[in-house]
Amino acid sequence: MGCCGDEEEHKEPDDLTRLHLQGLVINRRCRDILCLLLFIVFWAGMFVICGIAFKEGEPNRLIYGVDSYGMTCGSKNTFFNASFDLTDSKNMYWIDPLSLLSPTGVMYAKTICSPGCPTGTQVCSKNDFPCESGDQFTCPYYRFAEDSLYGRVPGVDATDITYWTQLASVTNVSDGGAAAQFVASVKGLGGAFAIKASQLESNLSGRYYQVQSQFPGNGPCYPNLFDTKEFFFRCFPVFPGNLTKELVQKAKGVVSTLSDNSVVKEVSSQWQSNSQKWARYVGDISRGILVIVIGGLAGGLVMSLLWLVVLRYLGGVMVWLAILFVNLSCIGACLFAWVKAGYIGNSGIGQDIVDALPGDINPSSDEQRTWFWVAVTFSIVAALVLLITLLCITRIKIAVACVKVASQAVGAMPTIIFFPFIPFIFEIGLIIYWVAVTALLYSAGDLTAWCRPEGPSATFSFAQFTNVSNVASTTQTLTSADAAMFNGTSASAGSANASGICYTNFTTDERAFFCGRDPNCYLSYKWNNRLKYAFIFHFFGLLWTNQVIIGFSCVTIAGAIAHFYWSRGDSVNMPTFPVLTALKNTVFYHMGSICFGGFIVALIQLIRAMLEYLDRKTKELQAQNKCAEWAMCCVKCCMWCIENIVKFINRNAYIMIAVKGQGYCCAAFSAVKLLITNCLRVAVVNMVADVLIFLGKISVAATAGVIAYAMTEAKYYNSPSKYPDTYLYSPVLVIALSAMVAFVVA
Predict the structure, then answer these.
(1) Domain end: 662, 692, 724, which one?
(2) Total domain count, the chain
(3) In sequence order, what are the residues at sequence separation of 6 or more whose Cβ sits closer than 8 angstroms to the Cβ of residue 419?
(4) 726 and 632 assigned to the same domain
């Protein structure tokens, strides 16, 4: 279990395996067991986080949203241990779209979950005003009814939002003197309103609440003033083009600040905020998981196998074509720079070159001096590339031979082509698991109330041209049932802290109740420190496990290729199933070493990710302090270099593990020693191999991206009306993930 101290003399192989294999160790033992145990314990922690995510998370919060009362649309909720079923209510609707007319009112505009978006005859248009149909009004949930109406309207369910008609059955109006003042104001409007006011003066019945609801902000219900369009389960009001003009005319300039159509701008700004975008993007991942699996995983696997076939027969040709292309590109750039510098063009050949180039490339005389130095630089680079090519022809031949031998090994061991299915399945499981848990974690957190720091809202008011006040009172009154339920809890929000958080001394249900009825408060889910640490742990699990899968593949394939290489391709001296033999050795003896190497790379990747996060959070500071910006850039660059160096050492250490059966530390030491003593040869071989592998990865990723794009163009993913459950807000992240997954698979 030590790093290197557990190495021991290996027994001599028997005559049957007398090792044509003078370099391949047959008898092995378990290595780095402690690292394997740590990895197992770590995954036990991953499953604990999974349990937390499933217990506290709710993906519908990302897809359908959370309304102003803390209810998740499209889900079954609970309120004070009572069921609050909104399974069929998947659309977020602003009950008072006029509150969006305030530049700062979007966040505080009250929303509810609705089965559909009001349109057509459900809209209370100006021609219908005052409206008489219950379908033309939307109310807060009856459980959160305004004017202390809960329990006073018979036959209404707690989640009902269309009880405007039933308001007429209320027998006891509790507004007292305020009701008389309101009726007098309505009577002053004349017309149909005067008739209704006269009826209320003679009999102050529940119709008082119906009339009050005609004016947004006054009554327990709100007229559907505008047609709405459903977009990603949000009912966006369609404001008429002349809305601003009419409001300005009626208000006699009071709301002239709206003439620049700030409504649309503010709604668009809120919708396009980074947090809202990211929430929708994460929701798209769960909707587009089939695209990622088919385009990224399956497509990546198929294209990778095809690339292996290409290397088998065209590896040498591709290498020499790539070298020729690089040299010709350098020479072409050199000639172009000399033409721009004015040194080519007078001779016959030079004139032919100039004639072949576009006619608008001739620079001014001031620029020719600059181009002269550019041409000198390009000439030096071209000369060096050509010189290196000529000097390394022998080593390039070795590299080409290595590629060919690897291709021959694939031909001699055709089962190795199917080995990628094993890490492929692991990658599928890891990605699906990680995405699912991430979505649940992202939707978890504490329901937090945020209060408007500047005090009362300043939304558009009908009182500006009707003389009927619609300024909602921020003082919340409770019914006797609510008062008993809250056991005397004060409805005061208290002073918001520096972050704007309020209602901090309330339970979750109490916070939802009071904030939902407070016009200066809105609710959202906020991660607590426990969830932040859980996500960091979960993210590191992705990095570490991914590196373990990569190491597992590398050691297994290297072990199989080693059998082929040291047997000189003679199948008699090879195991019957070399891939299975290598797989057995990897699983039984070397998983601890793989976990060791994977941990080092994953830790560096985690540090790089944290540096990127810190970089984004300190952009303003860096803009003011160039030294801080320079230091951050240097640290990020150093970590990038360290990661690539460790990955390079890891890859060669895994090969030594597969060949020699050593522990990770000894294998890494042997690999570094071998690399140093053969640095030039290794550099050329790795450069050629890396170019081919990189071209293969890019080709596979690009093809997977095309496949994913083609799939997202289907109506199944871009038709919100026909397929609302699979509609993608934006296919960008799904396509990008498909390409990234294919790149990893390759």
Answers:
(1) 662
(2) 2
(3) 553, 556, 557, 560, 579, 583
(4) no
Helices (H) and strands (E) in the chain, counts: 26, 11
Do 291 and 386 sit in the same domain of this protein? yes
For residue 346, the model assigns a pLDDT of 52
Q: Which domain holds residue 618?
A: 33-55+422-440+533-662
- With a CB cutoff of 8 Å and minimum separation 6, the contacts of 450 are 107, 496, 500, 501, 502, 521, 522, 523, 524
- Taking the C-alpha atoms of residue 248 and residue 254, their distance in angstroms, rounded to an integer, is 7
Q: Are residues 734 and 649 in the same domain?
A: no
The residue ranges of the chain whose pLDDT is under 70 are 1-23, 102-105, 126-128, 174-177, 189-191, 201-203, 240-286, 288, 312, 315, 344-370, 454-499, 569-573, 691-692, 695, 718-721, 723-726, 728-731
Query: What is the residue type of 399?
Result: A
Using H for helix, E for strand and C for coil, what is the string for 702-741? HHHHHHHHHHHCCHHHHCCCCCCCCCCCCCHHHHHHHHHH
Query: Could you tell me which residues come within 8 angstroms of residue 132 by beta carbon, excluding any fewer than 6 positions away?
Result: none
Co-location of 568 and 708 in the same domain: no
> Is 277:733 a contact under the CB 8 Å cutoff?
no
What pLDDT shows up at residue 550? 92
The answer to whether residues 600 and 692 belong to one domain is no
pLDDT of 1: 41
Q: Can you name the residues that pair with 94 across neighbouring β-strands?
A: 111
Domain shared by 288 and 403, yes or no = yes
